[in-house]
Amino acid sequence: RRNGIIKKAREISILCDAQVSVVIFSGSGKMSEYCSPSTTLPKILERYQQNSGEKLWDAKHESLSAEIDRIKKENDNMQIELRHLKGEDLNSLYPKELIPIEEALQIGLTSVRDKQMEIWKMHTKNEKLLEEENKQLTYMLHHQQLAMDGGVRALELGYHQKDGDFAPQMTMAFRVQPIRPNLQANK
């Protein structure tokens, strides 16, 4: 029977060029519906409410609808304001309307410049810290090199005391060479 009713709704929609909507709930709670292709269920319900004078929506739904409309309007206004801040559609504005836009842009420009200055100062500070660290590392490396050079010279000029005399010892210098394979041995 449910399918028969939906079939008749389709036929009425086509034969009579009418806008038809049918919603059926079975005893088990299963919903079936049909709506003419030229319309939607909310549009039909809205037309029903207008023509019958009956309120289908309670106050809560109406307040939500009003809130949605308010938010849409606010969004539209923000879109217009954003276009104005981008420099678009300014010809339609009066000089008094341009002053707040100019002030907002000045504040934005000041904020951007302050942020740039902050980043530049931080960069300069980091650069100075890196230079100081580089100087310290160079100083430490230089002293280590001097200590190593002094130790090698002491070995090269090594003297030891014998019976009050200073006798030169045979100088020995050790130099470490990387291991090189003997490429000639395999021939």
From TrEMBL:
Main location: nucleus
Domain MADS-box: 1-38
Gene3D superfamilies associated with the record: Transcription factor, MADS-box
GO cellular component, one term: nucleus
GO molecular function annotation: DNA binding; DNA-binding transcription factor activity; protein dimerization activity
Residues annotated as domain K-box: 61-147
Cell location: Nucleus
Keywords: Coiled coil, DNA-binding, Nucleus, Transcription, Transcription regulation
Coiled-coil ranges per UniProt: 61-88
SUPFAM superfamilies the record matches: SRF-like
InterPro entries: MADS-box/MEF2_TF, TF_Kbox, TF_MADSbox, TF_MADSbox_sf
PROSITE patterns found in the cross-reference section: K_BOX, MADS_BOX_2
Matches recorded under PANTHER family: SERUM RESPONSE FACTOR HOMOLOG
Protein name, as recorded: GLOBOSA-like MADS box transcription factor
Origin species: Dimerocostus strobilaceus
Lineage: Eukaryota, Viridiplantae, Streptophyta, Embryophyta, Tracheophyta
